[in-house]
Design a protein that fits this description.
The chain has about 170 residues and is mainly α. It contains 5 helices and no strands. About 30% of the residues are buried. The chain binds fe (ii) ion (2 copies). The site of one fe (ii) ion (FE2) has 5 residues, from helix 2 and helix 4.
Amino acid sequence: MDYKNYTSTPKASEIVAWSSKFMTGIELIDGQHKELVNLTNELYNACFAKDDDLQVVFKNAMSRMVEYVRFHFNAELKFLNTINYPDYSSHRKMHETLIKNILEAAKEAGEGKKFVPNNFVRTLVDWVFSHIAVYDKQYSAYVSEQVKKGALTTKKIKEAEHSAALEKLDKY
Ligand SMILES: [Fe+2]
Ligand SMILES: [Fe+2]
């Protein structure tokens, strides 16, 4: 998937812009996805640090991004588990694969194998934001459908968000 599909009118310093394509309608999740957009753009900007600082600046931005992705994935799973999302297991597996791929790519980057930070961030954008636009959108559709059917109440959704919000970022 082309990352450009996700950038409506990005500024020069942005590789990804928040878009309705990512909207789940779940406040906690949308807030975390927006933070992912911010951290991704910070990582992208880190690619343009001066040569001497590049390694350090990029590594720091990279670890903030990875930590946040793990934190978000866990919070999201907690939410999905609380609402008894039927595709919970496959969603969890997708998160695991994504983390594995990101860590492998970051490791290769650390080893300096023909590493082009800019390209690496594009790949990362592609992985993370296509997951959100496709698979997170699926549970979002499920939630609205259940609400329509009366099988899920706003109160229950808020409770699930509340329990997911207990996930702490400093664990990662
Ligand atoms: Fe997500
Ligand atoms: Fe997800």
